[in-house]
Amino acid sequence: MAFAGRWETETQEGYDEFCKLLGIPDDIIEKGRDYKLITEVTQDGNDFSWTQIYPTNAKVTNKFTVGKECDMETIGGKKFKATVLMEGGKLSVTFPNYHHTSEICGGKLVETSKAGAVVLKRTSKKL
Q1: pLDDT greater than 80 at residue 119
Q2: How many C-beta atoms surround the C-beta of residue 62 within 10 A?
Q3: What is the pTM of this model?
Q4: For residue 31, which phi and psi values (nearest 5 degrees)?
Q5: Mean pLDDT, the chain, integer
Q6: CA distance 108 to 95
Q7: pLDDT higher than 70, residue 1
Q8: Spatial separation of the C-alpha atoms in residues 57 and 98, rounded to whole Å
Protein backbone atom coordinates (compact mmCIF):
# COMPACT_ATOMS: atom_id res chain seq x y z
CA MET A 1 0.00 0.00 0.00
CA ALA A 2 3.08 2.23 -0.02
CA PHE A 3 2.11 3.86 -3.33
CA ALA A 4 -1.44 4.81 -2.31
CA GLY A 5 -2.11 8.51 -1.86
CA ARG A 6 -1.99 11.89 -3.55
CA TRP A 7 1.45 13.11 -4.62
CA GLU A 8 2.75 16.47 -5.89
CA THR A 9 5.93 17.02 -7.91
CA GLU A 10 8.81 18.51 -5.91
CA THR A 11 11.68 18.18 -8.37
CA GLN A 12 12.32 16.85 -11.84
CA GLU A 13 15.56 16.30 -13.70
CA GLY A 14 15.96 15.86 -17.47
CA TYR A 15 12.48 17.22 -18.26
CA ASP A 16 13.28 19.31 -21.37
CA GLU A 17 15.51 16.74 -23.04
CA PHE A 18 13.05 13.89 -22.36
CA CYS A 19 10.03 15.84 -23.67
CA LYS A 20 11.91 16.90 -26.82
CA LEU A 21 12.91 13.29 -27.48
CA LEU A 22 9.22 12.28 -27.30
CA GLY A 23 8.31 15.04 -29.79
CA ILE A 24 6.35 17.24 -27.38
CA PRO A 25 6.03 20.80 -28.81
CA ASP A 26 8.17 23.54 -27.22
CA ASP A 27 5.15 25.56 -26.03
CA ILE A 28 3.79 22.54 -24.14
CA ILE A 29 7.23 21.83 -22.67
CA GLU A 30 7.42 25.45 -21.47
CA LYS A 31 3.97 25.25 -19.82
CA GLY A 32 4.78 22.02 -18.03
CA ARG A 33 8.32 22.79 -16.89
CA ASP A 34 7.41 24.26 -13.50
CA TYR A 35 3.98 22.65 -13.17
CA LYS A 36 3.39 20.64 -10.02
CA LEU A 37 2.03 17.41 -11.50
CA ILE A 38 -0.46 15.67 -9.21
CA THR A 39 -0.41 11.88 -9.10
CA GLU A 40 -3.26 10.02 -7.39
CA VAL A 41 -2.77 6.33 -6.64
CA THR A 42 -5.16 3.82 -5.15
CA GLN A 43 -3.88 0.35 -4.37
CA ASP A 44 -5.68 -2.80 -3.31
CA GLY A 45 -3.07 -5.53 -3.13
CA ASN A 46 -1.77 -5.89 -6.70
CA ASP A 47 -4.60 -3.81 -8.22
CA PHE A 48 -3.79 -0.17 -8.94
CA SER A 49 -5.48 2.93 -10.29
CA TRP A 50 -2.86 5.52 -11.26
CA THR A 51 -4.02 9.01 -12.30
CA GLN A 52 -1.77 11.85 -13.39
CA ILE A 53 -3.24 15.36 -13.58
CA TYR A 54 -1.41 17.69 -15.97
CA PRO A 55 -1.60 21.43 -16.76
CA THR A 56 -5.01 22.58 -18.06
CA ASN A 57 -6.52 19.74 -15.99
CA ALA A 58 -5.73 17.12 -18.62
CA LYS A 59 -5.56 13.76 -16.88
CA VAL A 60 -4.83 10.16 -17.65
CA THR A 61 -5.91 7.21 -15.51
CA ASN A 62 -4.45 3.76 -16.00
CA LYS A 63 -5.83 0.79 -14.07
CA PHE A 64 -3.71 -2.32 -13.84
CA THR A 65 -2.97 -5.50 -11.92
CA VAL A 66 0.69 -6.29 -11.35
CA GLY A 67 1.79 -9.15 -13.61
CA LYS A 68 -1.25 -9.04 -15.93
CA GLU A 69 -1.43 -7.46 -19.38
CA CYS A 70 -3.72 -4.44 -19.47
CA ASP A 71 -4.81 -1.58 -21.70
CA MET A 72 -2.97 1.67 -20.95
CA GLU A 73 -2.90 5.18 -22.38
CA THR A 74 -0.26 7.91 -22.67
CA ILE A 75 -0.91 11.61 -21.98
CA GLY A 76 -0.97 12.04 -25.76
CA GLY A 77 -3.91 9.63 -26.00
CA LYS A 78 -1.97 6.72 -27.49
CA LYS A 79 -3.43 3.42 -26.35
CA PHE A 80 -1.24 0.35 -25.91
CA LYS A 81 -1.03 -2.96 -24.08
CA ALA A 82 1.52 -3.46 -21.31
CA THR A 83 2.27 -5.57 -18.28
CA VAL A 84 3.29 -3.76 -15.10
CA LEU A 85 5.78 -5.71 -13.02
CA MET A 86 6.82 -5.37 -9.38
CA GLU A 87 10.58 -5.86 -9.01
CA GLY A 88 12.21 -5.22 -5.64
CA GLY A 89 9.46 -2.85 -4.54
CA LYS A 90 9.55 -0.93 -7.86
CA LEU A 91 6.71 -0.83 -10.34
CA SER A 92 8.09 -1.21 -13.84
CA VAL A 93 6.39 -0.83 -17.24
CA THR A 94 7.44 -0.30 -20.84
CA PHE A 95 5.57 2.49 -22.66
CA PRO A 96 5.75 2.76 -26.48
CA ASN A 97 8.81 5.09 -26.45
CA TYR A 98 10.36 4.62 -23.01
CA HIS A 99 10.67 2.47 -19.88
CA HIS A 100 9.15 3.75 -16.63
CA THR A 101 9.72 2.78 -12.99
CA SER A 102 8.04 4.05 -9.82
CA GLU A 103 9.24 3.46 -6.27
CA ILE A 104 8.93 4.89 -2.78
CA CYS A 105 12.24 6.23 -1.41
CA GLY A 106 12.38 8.03 1.92
CA GLY A 107 8.61 8.56 1.91
CA LYS A 108 8.67 10.14 -1.56
CA LEU A 109 7.39 8.85 -4.90
CA VAL A 110 10.31 8.62 -7.33
CA GLU A 111 9.44 8.05 -11.00
CA THR A 112 12.13 7.43 -13.59
CA SER A 113 11.49 7.33 -17.34
CA LYS A 114 14.29 6.22 -19.67
CA ALA A 115 14.42 6.53 -23.45
CA GLY A 116 17.85 5.38 -24.58
CA ALA A 117 20.39 7.56 -22.74
CA VAL A 118 17.80 10.24 -21.87
CA VAL A 119 16.38 10.06 -18.34
CA LEU A 120 13.55 11.98 -16.70
CA LYS A 121 13.49 11.67 -12.91
CA ARG A 122 10.51 13.11 -11.03
CA THR A 123 10.32 13.16 -7.23
CA SER A 124 6.97 13.86 -5.54
CA LYS A 125 5.92 14.50 -1.95
CA LYS A 126 2.82 13.01 -0.38
CA LEU A 127 -0.01 15.48 0.19
Answers
A1: yes
A2: 17
A3: 0.89
A4: -65, -35
A5: 91
A6: 23
A7: no
A8: 24
CA gap 50, 121 in Å, rounded: 18
Residue 110 near residue 122, CB atoms below 8 Å: yes
Inform me whether the pLDDT recorded for 95 exceeds 90.
Answer: no
42 beta partners: 49
**pLDDT at site 14:** 95
Residues 6+ apart with CB under 8 A from 75: 52, 54, 58, 60
Order of strands, sheet of 85-87, starting from the edge strand that comes earlier in the sequence = 59-65, 47-53, 38-44, 5-13, 118-126, 108-115, 99-105, 90-94, 85-87
Spatial CA neighbour of 17 closest among 29, 27, 9? 29
- Please tell me the distance from the alpha carbon of residue 95 to that of residue 98, in angstroms, as a whole number: 5
DSSP notation for 97-118: S-EEEEEEETTEEEEEEEETTE
Q: Rounded distance, CA 18 to CA 22, Å?
A: 6
